[in-house]
Amino acid sequence: MKHLSFVTSLVIALSTSSSFAGDAEVGESLFKKKCSTCHQVGADAKNTVGPVLNNIVGNKIAGIEDYKYGASIVALGETGAVWSEEELSNWLANPKKYLRAALDDKKAKTKMSFKVKKEDERDNLIAYLSTLSE
Ligand code: HEC
Predict the structure, then answer these.
(1) Whole domain around residue 69: which residue ranges?
(2) CA-CA distance, 65 to 125, in Å (whole number)?
(3) More confident residue, 13 or 36
(4) Hey, which of 26, 33, 39, 124 would you mutate to test ligand 1's pocket, going by the most ligand atoms within 8 Å of its Cβ?
(5) Ligand 1 pocket at CB < 6 A
(6) What CATH number has the domain bearing residue 98?
(7) How many domains is the chain partitioned into structurally?
(8) Using an 8 Å Cβ cutoff, are 73 and 94 in contact?
């Protein structure tokens, strides 16, 4: 019986852990530290250096109204691509590299030069951003 319950709890542990099991609270403080200099969120958010990031998870890439994006991310948005959690994680790891790979264009550029190198930080940030989606 002992053995069986071990197997059962292992199965439960494996099935509940996804690669995006981030912590939204940790993500919120990371966002304040790392992203809020360029991005606003919340009811009165305005586009500043970067676009407003309310509802970004699942949104069309380069789809925030009245923000003047760079040409490369606009080109990617025009393919109809949306920000899944996986796309967001790849973007945050290295925005320029992400656009170059996604567009298959070695000259693609982006106005966002900031990178989040740690995967757990990206997961936490994405968990927080998901709470801002309706
Ligand atoms: C130094 C300023 C700066 C920082 C810091 C920054 N960003 Fe950005 N971000 C930008 C700019 C500028 C763009 C627009 C990119 C373009 O047009 O090429 C952007 C675009 C984005 C987009 C794409 C938005 C869309 O509508 O497609 C996401 C998502 C994003 N940023 C998330 C983040 C997150 C999360 C952080 C914190 C980890 C962060 N950014 C930190 C400046 C910044």
Answers:
(1) 2-131
(2) 22
(3) 36
(4) 39
(5) 34-35, 37-39, 49-51, 53, 56, 61-64, 69-70, 73, 88, 91-92, 110-112, 114, 116, 125
(6) 1.10.760.10
(7) 1
(8) no
pTM (2 decimals)?
A: 0.88
Q: In the predicted model, is pLDDT for residue 13 greater than 70?
A: no
- Distance from residue 80's CA to the centre of ligand 1 (Å): 19
High-pLDDT (> 70) share of the chain, %: 84
- Average per-residue pLDDT in the chain? 90
CA 75/CA 127 separation, integer angstroms: 27
- DSSP collapsed to 3 states, the chain: CHHHHHHHHHHHHHHHCCCCCCCHHHHHHHHHHHCCCCCCCCCCCCCCCCCCCCCCCCCECCCCCCCCCCHHHHHHHCCCCECCHHHHHHHHHCHHHHHHHHHCCCCCCCCCCCCCCCHHHHHHHHHHHHHCCC
